[in-house]
């Protein structure tokens, strides 16, 4: 399946809902959205990956790029993901130590609030 | 031994097709269901790497994917035609777009983490990535 992207605000944090496959073909669209959000001054982001069916290193690169962009503005980019097949690539690359990875959007928001 | 070969133009859209074909052949070859996601990801990484290289260096040449089932292994070989000097990230080669933000070698690191048997060989013609997983014997 292709990539579907949507976003909305919740408790002052921008939630990015991602559905489908993030790979070398579709990742540029996610990158453009993250850049657009940062340019629109959304610096607190949660990327909800619960409906992501596939993620490769190109997608990881886009997420790392997004994290770098928001951190340049003292922001944050957390992930929501419970799927083992997606979490596997984060573990292989050691990126579980770089991203806050949460079970639900509410948990991600709460974690972000507690750090403020 | 039976082999399925796929040759595709180096376009990102075709990487998904390559993943789908590889997963289907792996399933038919008797690779355990629990490994199919791993095969899909590793093949995708190898093909993405080849597409990136071809787009920078030789966009008119196809990438070759060979899927072979032997008695007890399912083998995948992805072959590109990017000579070492022209390979993305190489000292003399064109550099990949900075905007991708993918650290050089991350794809290879992922492949190495996914396949228990990986062989990367570089020749003057390009790079071949061979990887394999156990299979229970093909459905013939």
Described by strand count, sense and barrel closure, the largest sheet of chain A is: 5 strands, mixed
For the CA atoms, what is the radius of gyration of chain A?
13 Å
CATH architecture of chain B: 2-Layer Sandwich
**Sheet with the most strands: spatial strand order of chain B:** 1-2-3-5-4
Descriptive keywords:
heterodimer; A: alpha/beta; Transcription Regulator spoIIAA; 5-stranded mixed sheet; globular; B: Heat Shock Protein 90; 5-stranded antiparallel sheet; 5 strands; 36% helix
Describe the protein.
- The complex is a heterodimer of chains A (116) and B (140).
- Chain A contains four helices and five strands.
- Chain A has 116 residues and is of the alpha/beta class.
- Chain A has one domain: STAS domain (Transcription Regulator spoIIAA, 2-Layer Sandwich), CATH 3.30.750.
- In chain A, helix 1 runs parallel beside helix 2.
- With 140 residues, chain B is α+β, with helices and mostly antiparallel strands.
- In chain B, strand 2 and strand 3 form a beta hairpin.
- Chain B is globular.
- The N and C termini of chain B lie close together (10 Å).
- The relative contact order of chain B is 0.21.
- About 5% of the residues of chain B have low confidence.
- At the A-B interface, helix 2 and helix 3 of A face helix 1, helix 2 and helix 3 of B.
